Amino acid sequence: xxxxxxxxxxxxxxxxxxxxxxxxxxxxxxxxxxxxxxxxxxxxxxxxxxxxxxxxxxxxxxxxx
Length: 65
Fold this sequence. Notes:
Elements: E1 4-11, E2 14-20, E3 26-33, E4 39-45, H1 51-63
Antiparallel strand pairs: 1-2, 2-3, 3-4
């Protein structure tokens, strides 16, 4: 989506990416693996959220799998 990744935290079974949109909005994506068949993806935009942009990011991630 052309966002600049500004932070990355990784631990066993979990990764958290922080990026900035072209409009300088903060986007956080957390991917956590619970088992071989269950993975949770959470998307957060800014402090109070933006459902439309969050869904767009999630759909882009899902299209890669």
